[in-house]
Amino acid sequence: MFFPRASTILLMLLMATIAWSSGHGHSSGDMKHSKSMDHAGEVSSGDIVVMHPWSRAVPVAGMNAAGYMKIMNKGDKAVTLTQFVSSASAKTSLHETVKKGDMASMRALPEGITIPAKGSISLQPGGLHLMFLKIKAPLVEGDKIPVTLKFDSGTELAAKLMVKPIGTTDGHDKMHH
Ligand SMILES: [Cu+2]
Hints:
Layout lengths: L1 H21 L8 H7 L5 E3 L2 E9 L8 E9 L5 E7 L3 E12 L2 E6 L4 E3 L3 E5 L4 E8 L8 E8 L4 E9 L13
Parallel strand pairs: 2-11
Antiparallel strand pairs: 1-2, 2-3, 3-8, 3-9, 4-7, 4-10, 5-6, 5-9, 10-11
Copper (II) ion (CU) binds next to strand 9.
């Protein structure tokens, strides 16, 4: 009885491994490797390209978190990012950080964020950003947060924000520059 059972378990493990690797693109299973391969995290839909989507580790559920990326519009009409959707937080919002003297505060952008024709915008610390209001679970370095961006053109784009260490200010992986 032992051998058939053991081989069944082995078969299941093998199948799980196959499912895992096919679901993870060119992942070698090596964490260090997959991290660098996902450096860009670039995705596109229609005229819109999202580059380098990232977030920052947040240790406690219920806190807010920010998301950053570069968004390019290759089309010849301006497009407005109206909303983003994520299962990572109870609510989401588009925000801008505004500095007055030494004070930095955030304001919501209910009208969305417009990307000019043949242009791009950068969501980055100190400026425009996605805001996750009350995250459901801590954001852990190396996690990828699924986010769907919605545009007034009807374009929807699914991106994955790479979670960088606490304290990261530009999201760029120094190893690759
Ligand atoms: Cu904010």
